[in-house]
Amino acid sequence: MSEEFSPPASASGRTAAVPLDDIDRQILAQLLKDGRVSVRALAEQVHISRANAYTRIGRLVAEEVITGFTARLNPQRAGLGTSAYVTLSIEQNAWRDISRALREIPYVEHVALVTGDFDVLVLVRAPDNSALRRVVLESVHAIPGVRGTRTWLVFDEVRGRGAEWTA
Length: 167
Prior knowledge:
The protein has 167 residues and is an alpha+beta fold. 32% of the residues lie in helices and 19% in strands. The chain has helices at 22-33, 39-46, 50-62, 95-103, 129-140, and strands at 82-90, 108-113, 120-126, 146-154. The chain has a four-stranded antiparallel β-sheet. The relative contact order is 0.15.
């Protein structure tokens, strides 16, 4: 997610959820199941016209409910055989600069500011342990404001169910 992303905010300054009806939820469920589905097939599956499907998808994109369409990769089959979660302790006022720098490092897949015993959680997917070592020790540690890291190798992964989008 880019730093320029500005989701709608409520009066309290928090990100506001966009109201979704049953058709919107069905569209999201179908797109999450198969992001390559044609609009014609999607419209048939949720029992609406193609024009309505195009309009709704366009609105969901414009309102940033849908932020993109992408393929899910099997990291090992794609040559990224080493995955790790790297926790960072940072200087608190450095989050924006650190998040910007982390997004530029090859093999960094996800970055989150969190609470708890550390400040940032980073998912790194690299070809091997040597590349992971370079990412952590040469790239991440070189970012101003990073005080320390811990690395947790991932041995296996499964996908969870996620949210239910149909009523």
